[in-house]
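Re: folding output
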Amino acid sequence: MAVSPISTSLRVVSSQASKQGTLQKSVTQFAVDLIQEFINGILVFTDQQQLIYVSDSAHKVLNRLQPDSPSRNQIPEEILHICQSVIQSRHRFPRQSWLTEFDILTQDATILRIHSQWLKLEQLDNPCLVLMIEDRQQAIKNILLEEANQYDLTPREKEVWLLHRNDLTYKQIAVELGITPNTVKKHMKSIHAKQKQSTYFCDPEDSITQLN
């Protein structure tokens, strides 16, 4: 399978130069909106499997799929295979709307979830294929950090909470942080108390019930 070079610039497949600026703004804004939703990288292909956009953040993520590759400027074959599969499915079933997901396990045991979606841009005759890359571990960590901020945890409590939510035992957490298991228990007791307090203030119905 041929491997296409990655370019951080937008390559527009259009003979009308006047459309290039508008197309670039459209795709870039679309990518920015998605990245704000915790997506770790964006790739946009034409229905002919030609890459027309790649976000800067996608480079770092994609390089984890080919750590031993002599070139850091190539699209991994796994991504090209996904792209080809989705495009072929659309060509075979043109009346169907395809929203598919693929999970890839990297060599460093990171799970990358690839979301595919077709995007219609006015500047192009045919829809574009958008591949959105999500680092599942990072996404879960972001959720846990949101929880920690919601509970107003201290920096040390955040560390304990993240390890606890990753299914580490109190002894394992103690070894990881260089503290005693009893200290871990004290932190967890404080965390649970803050959880209850946060739930009390965030759920008006429960608050009314408790007051009655």
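--- second protein (sequence, then structure) ---
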Amino acid sequence: MGMEIKNRVDNLERVALEFEGAQFAVRHVLANLLSRLDRHDAEECLRELQSTGRRHGIELGESRLTGYLDELEALKVASANVRKVGAPPLRAVS
């Protein structure tokens, strides 16, 4: 029984780390895209998402809302960092 619990804990840890890695990838993609927008448009987009999260906070629950807003803040910082190194502007692809 003890080994089964250890295996389950090990599997949960592996899955949590994989999820965290996926979350970092999504954050980097979105930060890159936001950094290519006009700064005002990017900031407005993030403000609208924060507002939407707060409006649905009761449905999300306190912990999810905290995570949601924290992730938006991390995305804002990440996009500012990408902008500093000079991401090229978005262009239409046909």
